[in-house]
Each structure stands twice: as C-alpha cells, then as structure tokens.
Design goal:
By secondary structure, the chain is mainly alpha-helical. Helices cover about 80% and strands about 0% of the residues. It is built from four helices and no strands.
C-alpha cells in the first residue's frame, strides 16, 4: 500500500485507472479499456508500466527497512 501511495502521482490518471481496474479489481482489459477509451493493448501496457514501477519501489522500501 505504501509503494502504491508513493508512485501513483508518477502516472497519468487513466494509466493508474487501467492498472487499478485490471490488477486490483481483476476486471478484463477489454472492459477497463472500454470505460477509459483505451485499447486492450494500451491497458496491458499501462498495467505493465505501473507494476514495474511498483516492483522498484517495493525493493527500495525493503532495502530501506533492512538498513535500519
């Protein structure tokens, strides 16, 4: 949750909504894309970008916690 809070502001609202709809809510890319006026492919790209950034942030937070 902390990582999501930290990186959300780095993305356009539609990119975040595409990620949230597919990764968190478990909705189909086609359904999410229709609501956001994005192709399913664009939804997958958005999800992938956010997930990659979240992985980086989680690793950074873990390293920070281990340093304590």
């Amino acid at each position: 949750a902390r990582a999501m809070e930290r990186v959300q502001g780095e993305f356009q609202p539609t990119t975040w909504q595409a990620f949230w709809g597919t990764a968190v809510e478990g909705r189909a890319a086609q359904e999410v894309g229709a609501g956001l006026k994005m192709s399913p492919g664009a939804v997958y790209v958005a999800k992938s970008r956010v997930l990659a950034r979240l992985r980086e942030e989680v690793q950074r937070l873990q390293a920070e916690a281990e340093a304590w």
